[in-house]
Amino acid sequence: MSLLFNTYPLLRPLLFSLDAETAHDRTLPALKKLVNCRATRACLQARVSDHPTTLMGLSVRNPVGLAAGLDKNGAYIDALGHLGFGFVEVGTVTPVAQQGNPRPRLFRLPQSQALINRMGFNNLGLKAFVANVKTSTWRDQGGVLGLNIGKNAVTPNDQAVNDYLAGLEAVYPYADYITINISSPNTANLRDLQGQDELSAMLAPLKRRREALADEYGYRVPLAVKIAPDLTQEQTDAIATVLQQQGIDGVIATNTTLSREAVAGQRHASETGGLSGPPVHELSLPVIAQLRDRLGPDIAIIGVGGIVSGQQALEKLSAGADAVQLYTGLIYRGPALIRECVQALRTQTAPRTKEST
Question: Is 184 noted as a catalytic residue in this protein?
Answer without folding.
Answer: yes
